[in-house]
Amino acid sequence: MIDTNHLYIDIAKTNYGGDDLVGFYGFFGNGRMLVTGGKKNDILNIVNYTNSLVNATWIGYYTTKGDKIKLEYFVPSEGGEYETMHGIIKKDTIIFMETIRGGASLFSKEVRSDTLIKSPYFLR
């Protein structure tokens, strides 16, 4: 269900210092993955340079089971942390979910946190 030939683009609107940012996820057939991104007006450089495991911003692993996906990658900033996400694959879209917990864990609710769509850009 995951296309291992194309990058997926994060459709969230993100702005930093007046620049629109874009994020890409790439999934390899062996369970490895990459996350990369940068300024939207530099999209061709991002796609051409950082779209491999050698030059990606972050690398990690993913697993799928039916239409479910789980991924984990290391973010080496501020001492570093592992980012873990889970979601649902629907055709050319991946919808990641986040669990929000209420006070004293009296309730919890799953909400959409990120949405990726398959891009026209090829994964290397």
Give an overview in words.
The structure is a single chain. With 124 residues, the chain is mainly beta. It has one domain. Helices cover 6% and strands 63% of the residues. The protein is built from 1 helix and 8 strands. The protein has one helix at residues 43-49; strands at residues 6-16, 19-27, 32-39, 58-65, 68-75, 81-90, 93-101, 108-122. Strands 1-2-3-4-5-6-7-8 form an 8-stranded antiparallel barrel. Strand 6 (81-90) and strand 7 (93-101) form a beta hairpin. The longest helix has 7 residues, at 43-49. The radius of gyration is 15 Å and the shape is globular. The relative contact order is 0.23.
Layout: helices, strands, pairs:
Layout: E1 6-16, E2 19-27, E3 32-39, H1 43-49, E4 58-65, E5 68-75, E6 81-90, E7 93-101, E8 108-122
Antiparallel strand pairs: 1-2, 1-8, 2-3, 3-4, 4-5, 5-6, 6-7, 7-8
Strand arrangement across the biggest beta sheet: 1-2-3-4-5-6-7-8
How many helices does DSSP assign? 1
Number of strands: 8
% residues in beta strands:
over 45%
Q: Can you tell me the number of structural domains?
A: 1
Q: What's the pLDDT, averaged over the residues?
A: 88
Please give the share of residues in helix.
Answer: under 10%
* Global structural class: mainly beta
Characterize the main sheet.
8 strands, antiparallel, barrel
Morphology call: globular
Cα-to-Cα separation, first versus last residue: 18 Å
The parts where pLDDT drops under 50 for at least 5 residues are none
- Could you tell me the radius of gyration in angstroms? 15 Å
Order of helices and strands: EEEHEEEEE
